[in-house]
Every structure is written in C-alpha cells, then in structure tokens.
Amino acid sequence: MNINEVPQDQRNIKPGDTLKKLVYAVDKDGKYTGVNSVGWEAENVVIKQAWDDIDEHLAETEAQVRAGTLSPIPYFMLRNLMDLALLARYAGKWQWQVKRHFKPEVFKKLSPAMLAKYAEVFNITTAELTGFGKKNA
Prior knowledge:
Elements: E1 21-26, E2 32-37, H1 41-67, H2 72-79, H3 84-91, H4 95-100, H5 104-107, H6 112-122, H7 126-131
Antiparallel strand pairs: 1-2
Helix pairs in contact: 1-2
C-alpha cells in the first residue's frame, strides 16, 4: 500500500482516544517507511466490540464482588487485562492458590504482605483492594 492509502478512519471507542499505530507503506521512491494511522473501520469495530465485552465482564464481576460471592482479586485481574496464569506469575503463587484467593472467605484471611503484593501487582493501594465492593464504598 502507498503512503497516501494508509487508512485514517477515526476511532469512536472511548472519548479522547488518540491512539495511533505505526504501519508500513511504500513511499514515492518505492521504499517501505513508517506511517502513523488511527486505524480503519473494520479494525475499529472489532476493537470496540472487544472493549465492550471486557466492560461487560467487569460489570458482572463487580456485581459478584458487591454481592459477596467473589473477592476483589478477579475484578482487578480483569481490569488489568490479566489472566490467571499471568496474575499467579506476578504474585509469586501457583494458579490454584490465586484461584483460591478469589473466595471471599479466603481473601479475608490473607496476610498483609500478600494483600500488599496483590495491590502492587494491580498498581493500587491495599486499602483500595480491601475496600473495593464494600456496601459503603
């Protein structure tokens, strides 16, 4: 594709979204060169659908946390676009241990050091982690 053919279909994913990506196109001399693109319509539709799906899962998980059926850990895991394997690796635990921490009764018994480790992984404070989903929060 030539430089002047690089798609520039503006995204409508989130307000203020100015994300650009580097694509390669052929310049007037026939050489590949980097060109910024804001995307093309088909790509933008798929990305919006993916974000909508993530937002839906986040809302469902938040409702479960507020209902007391899940600990806050799965919510922050999803919010940070992590899966169980990645979170376990960052937390320095086995996957089965992290999955066990999803249970509110187990989460309540976690040591301050383990809560601090999760908070560090999620880039939040321990108070934000332990206070998330509480009735008055």
